[in-house]
Amino acid sequence: MTVQNVYPAKDFSVQVQTLRKYIHDALGWDYEPNIGAPTILMPLRAAGIVTTLSGRFDFRGRVRGHAFDNQSFELFDVTAAKMTRPNIGQYRNMNQLSDMSFIMGEPVDAEDMAMFDASYSERRGFQGVVISLPHHSQFMGRTIIRRDMGKLNPPVIQDLKRVGFASSVFEKTFEVFSDDQVEARFLITPDFMERLIVFSDDYMGRNVQCGFMGDKFHVTVDIDDRFDFSRDLNSANYQDASTSIINEIGGIFYLLEKMQTLQARVGAKGSEAVDAERGAYYKALMDTLIPAVKASSDKFSTVSKVFQDMENDLPLFCESLHGMLLPRF
Predict the structure, then answer these.
(1) Which of 227, 246, 281 delimits the end of a domain?
(2) How far apart are CA 19 and CA 3, in angstroms?
(3) pTM for this one?
(4) Domain coverage including residue 176
(5) Are the C-beta atoms of residues 71 and 281 closer than 8 Å to each other?
(6) Which of 76, 105, 115, 152: CA 20 to 30 A from 8?
(7) How far from the centroid of its chain's Cα atoms is residue 313's Cα?
């Protein structure tokens, strides 16, 4: 028997969010499903790093806590809001001017209408996560790293001027803009450039862009709906929801490892040793999390074979999960 048999799917979303919060809490993290815009969003949008054609964003959750080496982090699930379908008859064509602007004039024909509908879902803008971590070096200025746009690269963004680097490989992939040329070169070391290039070749990092602002290192990863903190709200049962959330947390582990790798200092141990230690840390967390959640799910299934009282069963499962996870972390 699935949850839908005894509990409306629309209400089960609350149960899944509670389950997600328990799992994050066991890791010592704070998960919040209902949040406002992160303070860094507007500077990132002004820099052209996150975009929205509708002029709005949806914020589907925030995770914050401490990662490897007790480094604090914040991760936001950010998605450009869907466009409100305009009265197509008011517009002459679909040429975009800026964000969501069109040339007004005569009604468009049926072919233009079809083209608009076909691409409607593809013109939303940014859909991914924004990760913020403290940086090990102090800095006062603003530096951003955008994907290279070839001849479309602007010479100046806001008051940030282009910064050139000797690495031809880096220059082919990224463009750097800063209000302090010296500080930008201090932050973007040859080792950092090499690591960023490697991550940009990764599927998860294929659209990576960065910003050094406000004493923090901000990374945006445009990865479609890979991190959608609301996608499993209609899960059929707690086991399915648990699996989805575990996969989600595994993705967070992966991104945190990569983000910390980008700004890692070599130190006395050497970069390879630190990278190995960091990777082992996240693998150990995942190896502990998976069996603990499964064991708790199995226990819950045994105790409650039929979902007769969902309001009572949810605390039973969550308390069981919470009690089994906390000692392990």
Answers:
(1) 227
(2) 14
(3) 0.76
(4) 35-82+124-227
(5) no
(6) 76
(7) 32
Distance, in Å, from the CA atom of 224 to the CA atom of 45, rounded to the nearest integer, reads: 17
pLDDT tens-digit map of 140-187: 999 999 999 888 888 899 899 999 999 999 999 999 999 999 999 999
Side-chain half-sphere CA neighbours of 118 within 13 A: 7
Residue 209 clears pLDDT 90, i.e. is over it? yes
Examine the domain organization and report whether 149 and 19 are in the same domain.
Answer: no
295, 305: one domain: yes
Helices (H) and strands (E) in the chain, counts: 10, 10
Last residue of a domain, one of 194, 227, 260: 227
**Whether residue 209 sits in one domain with residue 311:** no
Task: Please check whether residue 112 lies inside any domain of the structure.
Answer: no
Do 260 and 329 belong to one domain? yes
Whether 327 has a pLDDT exceeding 90, the answer reads no
CA distances from 131 to 41, 108, 176, 216, 275 (A): 11, 42, 19, 10, 19
Segment 204-209 mean pLDDT: 91
